[in-house]
From TrEMBL:
<feature type="domain" description="Ribosomal RNA methyltransferase FtsJ">
    <location>
        <begin position="118"/>
        <end position="296"/>
    </location>
</feature>
<dbReference type="GO" id="GO:0032259">
    <property type="term" value="P:methylation"/>
</dbReference>
<dbReference type="GO" id="GO:0008168">
    <property type="term" value="F:methyltransferase activity"/>
</dbReference>
<dbReference type="Pfam" id="PF01728">
    <property type="entry name" value="FtsJ"/>
</dbReference>
<dbReference type="InterPro" id="IPR002877">
    <property type="entry name" value="RNA_MeTrfase_FtsJ_dom"/>
</dbReference>
<dbReference type="InterPro" id="IPR029063">
    <property type="entry name" value="SAM-dependent_MTases_sf"/>
</dbReference>
<protein>
    <recommendedName>
        <fullName>Ribosomal RNA methyltransferase FtsJ domain-containing protein</fullName>
    </recommendedName>
</protein>
Length: 385
């Protein structure tokens, strides 16, 4: 559940579409509406170009090999590879800050003189955190990361010894008490009953900047029931703990995939109600992939909209964790309860989505167009009789 796995297969985080069996569910309807809007109504040229390139590259053997190699590299990261990823994530964070200033913590008038507080929920190897500490040298950081013994990655040496970093090596999706679902609410027959953890957060603990860019690791051994909804559980854990403990006016950096995916659109739409939302994608690193970062600043966590979405996330996390039988219909109902109407999202957010997405689609389309495996595919097409 750490950052190296950004090189793995893109996972549609938050509320993955494949998690319910019905093709008429909320996510399916939202997907169809978004695609129709971008391709037919708004006719966004950047997205149309990317859409055609994706169709062209689907199933190209050379492309499959390229991404399979990236997955193997991610899964078997040794010291040299980990050092490369650590440096890469620092480069990404530095570029992100150069363009947006997102890592610059500016205390409010009431906090003048206090030390900035950082929260990193999936730290390893720690490139983002290292950059945040470099920009804010007096900051104190509370961090979490999956232990190496459970499939996690090595934390950079300089962070392991950093006096301003308090590290917790654990699986954050087991923080049931901090998620407001104490272990006592789980039946003793639950496969993870003995693994749920007591509180690791102080009730009044608040952070200026929260980093939410962890992903599910294929190298982690998990109970079978978790496989189906682990991406949802991990993403919601990060969102809930961050928003719950964010200082009013604080900042969240969240890793997502496919800005046009229903889960990403819904998340951006919700955050726009109580924060200033920007997006970022590096022009070189992972350019061929759909990954991008949502940058939410001046988060007004006390607004009614923020409180409502936080409670809805908690209900979904609880359902995904308690449901060990994979009850798709029950989970679909929980997902849709309180969710915004599909029509409202596009009517109120469609134009904003286009403006946010143009740069991301352009970067990915250009990278795919120039990828060696796509050029090989084009040559084969040209040689056909």
């Amino acid at each position: 559940m750490d950052k190296l796995n950004i090189a793995a297969d893109p996972i549609d985080l938050h509320f993955p579409q494949e998690e319910t069996s019905s093709r008429n569910d909320y996510n399916s309807r939202l997907t169809k509406a978004i695609m129709h809007y971008l391709l037919n109504e708004a006719q966004v040229p950047e997205f149309q170009r990317l859409y055609e390139l994706r169709k062209k590259g689907w199933g190209v053997p050379a492309g499959d090999k390229f991404f399979a190699k990236q997955r193997r590299t991610s899964d078997k990261a040794h010291a040299k590879t980990a050092a490369h990823f650590y440096k890469m994530m620092q480069d990404i964070a530095t570029d992100m800050n150069r363009l947006t200033g997102i890592f610059d913590i500016k205390p409010s008038a009431s906090d003048i003189g206090s030390r900035p507080a950082l929260l990193d929920l999936c730290m390893a190897p720690g490139g983002f955190l290292a950059t945040a500490l470099k920009i804010n040298p007096t900051a104190q950081a509370l961090t979490f990361t999956l232990p190496k013994s459970e499939g996690g990655y090595e934390v950079a040496r300089e962070l392991r010894k950093h006096p301003n970093v308090t590290a917790n090596f654990l699986d954050i999706t087991m923080l049931a008490t901090d998620m407001r679902t104490p272990a006592a609410e789980f039946p003793p027959s639950h496969p993870d009953f003995a693994k749920f953890l007591p509180a690791h957060f102080n009730e009044k603990q608040r952070f200026d900047l929260a980093l939410c860019d962890g992903q599910v690791l294929r190298t982690q051994a998990r109970a079978a029931y978790r496989e189906k909804r682990e991406a949802t559980r991990l993403t919601l854990t990060q969102l809930i703990l961050s928003l719950e403990h964010l200082r009013p006016g604080g900042t969240m950096i969240v890793l997502l995939h496919k800005i046009e995916a229903p889960n990403a659109v819904q998340l951006l739409y919700e955050f726009e109600k109580f924060s200033t939302v920007r997006v970022y994608k590096h022009a070189h690193y992972h350019a061929k992939r759909s990954s991008f970062y949502m940058l939410a600043s001046d988060v007004k966590k006390d607004r009614k909209e923020a409180r409502e979405v936080l409670e809805r996330w908690k209900r979904v996390w609880r359902a995904a964790t308690l449901d060990v039988d994979g009850d798709d219909e029950m989970f679909r109902q929980v997902l849709e309860e309180g969710a915004p109407r599909v029509e409202d999202i596009l009517e109120r957010f469609g134009e904003r989505l286009v403006n946010l997405g143009r740069g991301l689609w352009e970067i990915q389309a250009s990278a795919l167009e120039n990828a060696p495996f796509m050029k090989k595919s084009s040559r084969r097409e040209d040689q056909r009789p």
